[in-house]
Amino acid sequence: MGNATNETTKKTNWLDAIKAQFKRIIWPTKEEAARRSAVVLAVSVLLGVIIAVLDRVLLLLTDVIISL
Q1: What is the pTM of this model?
Q2: Which of 11, 12, 22, 28 could disulfide-pair with 32, CB 3.0 to 4.6 Å?
Q3: Domain ranges across the chain
Q4: Could you read off the pLDDT tens digit of each residue along the chain, which spans 68 residues?
């Protein structure tokens, strides 16, 4: 019987610790979240373009080498 009480106490302590951690979180404002999302989107698009250009260049180089 003491084992079940111990389990309940552990779960309660664990939930209390999680609640305490959530209270310490500093959530970003809507403006900060929008700005960070825009940066992530811009970097993703830029990297996509860079990868596409590199792919095209490597494809052309491969075609040149194969045609020799």
Answers
A1: 0.61
A2: 28
A3: 2-67
A4: 456 667 778 778 889 999 999 999 999 999 999 999 999 999 999 999 999 999 999 999 999 999 98
